[in-house]
Amino acid sequence: MTAQIPEIIYIDGKRRSLLSCPSIPKGHPSIRRLTADELEERGVLLSTALWREYIGTWKIKDEHLLLVSLKGRFVLIRKGPILADWFSGVITVARGKCLQYIHAGFGSIYEQYEYIAIENGIVVDSFVVDNAERPVLR
């Protein structure tokens, strides 16, 4: 599998790579899937580096996971961020430098990972794993 382009997430005002993909709900009134003609008109290129066909920009503000924008196959049809109340799960955020690039999915190894548990769009827990001292295979 080709390495995937990460989602974008802002935490405490800092842009980070989101190495997991919170779902985009089907039938949400503020999200629309573009047709093939609309993709062509807008010059949207799809790639094996983007199997999900979109890049989401997210942020965590006041312990809420918010969807800020979408580019690619989906678009937001209203202004302003949307509370991701449809999402429950754990998201993985890269922190620090990439220690080892791996050309598969989100397999690259970073200095740190932040794991954030979300329930119905609300942050319920988080912790950081430090890989800085971890040996890297070459």
Features:
138 residues, mainly beta, 8-stranded mixed sheet, two-stranded antiparallel ribbon, 10 strands, 5% helix, 49% strand
Please characterize this protein's 3D structure.
The chain is globular and about 50 Å long. It is mainly beta and 138 residues long. It has one domain (7-130). β4 and β5 form a beta hairpin. It has one helix at 36-42, and strands at residues 7-11, 14-18, 31-33, 54-61, 64-72, 74-76, 82-83, 89-100, 109-119, 122-130. It contains one helix and ten strands, in the order βββαβββββββ. The strands form two sheets. It has an eight-stranded mixed beta sheet with strand order 7-5-4-1-2-8-9-10, with no helix packed on it. The longest helix has 7 residues, at 36-42.
**Main β-sheet, spatial strand arrangement:** 7-5-4-1-2-8-9-10
**Rg:** 16 Å
Helix content: under 10%
**What is the mean pLDDT?**
83
Structural class: mainly beta
| Count of alpha and pi helical runs | 1
Count of separate structural domains: 1
What fraction strand?
over 45%
Distance between the termini: 19 Å
Largest sheet, in brief, is: 8 strands, mixed
Q: What's the overall geometry?
A: globular
Q: H/E element string? A: EEEHEEEEEEE
Give the total of beta strands.
Answer: 10
Low-confidence stretches: none
| Oligomer classification | single chain
